[in-house]
Design brief:
By secondary structure, this protein is an alpha+beta fold. It is built from eight helices and six strands. The strands form two sheets. It has a four-stranded mixed β-sheet with strand order 1-6-5-4.
Length: 330
Amino acid sequence: MTKSHSSLAPHPHGLAHDHAFLGASHVRNERRTWMVIALCTVMMVVEIVGGMWFGSIALVADGWHMSTHASALLLAALAYSYARRHADDRRFTFGTGKFGDLAGFTSAIVLAMIALLVGYEAALRLVDPVPIDFAEAIPIAVLGLLVNVASALLLGAGGHDHQHHHHDDPHPARRVHDHDGGHRAVPSYARHRDHNMRAAVVHVMADAAVSVLVIIGLSLGRWLGWAWMDPVAGICGAIVIAAWSWTLIRDTGAILLDMNPDRELSERMRAVIEAEGDRLTDLHLWRLGPGHLGAIVSVATVQDRGPAHYRALLRRFEAVSHLTVEVHAA
């Protein structure tokens, strides 16, 4: 058996490579997340202090609600910072690219808990209605919606790694070894999103969706007398948040468990190898980070071919940033 793979040890040709598989927009997303945290924190303080000053319990409650989202965004920002600082830490076998997915999974759990709490509170109010100061509550909901819209604009098209790179990214493009010992740049894999940023965006959008539903419910309650619409809007908001939470848990959980992120790519790799009469005996494909995949390929052949031959064949799959090839005599 002949085996070839990438490692942190010096390359036979005197070259070495790293195992830092961060997304192309990592630093930009980190910076924008901190900006949104600052905005949410200011809004939270204004609401809590203002509510206590003017005696508005609704304003104080909305301020503490804002603090839950600020905390979730803080988790995302810390994950970005930690992954960047330890990107070249050799204790992490395949780098720190999955820290964002771990943070996204945790944020999804927090979202699920928020959905349960919102749904529970709304159900209680549906059974046992409480007096609502519509003139005070509607402006608060509108203000919360505006803050969430501003946050969404700051985060931009979060959750997607674009095909371009930024000058402030410490790892703008990872590189893998060619069959001849050279290196080639690997562009971002657009179909694999930055789930850390995606979780931050989901938190903001979930809060915005609830604000819209609350505004609708409060407006109908104020002008049509349908006070029951407020808790109904809360229940609808809880269902929306729960649905988004489940989708995020499913996607990030699959990455953390190293599920195959692209079955179509696996089949294309198989077809390329077996087109010459060889047999692909084993193939493992998993995500290393936003825009980066790892692969282990085992080939059985009757030809006198080494790992370099198959590495050359698989060079076309630029999403594969880390490749290990094993060759067995059939």
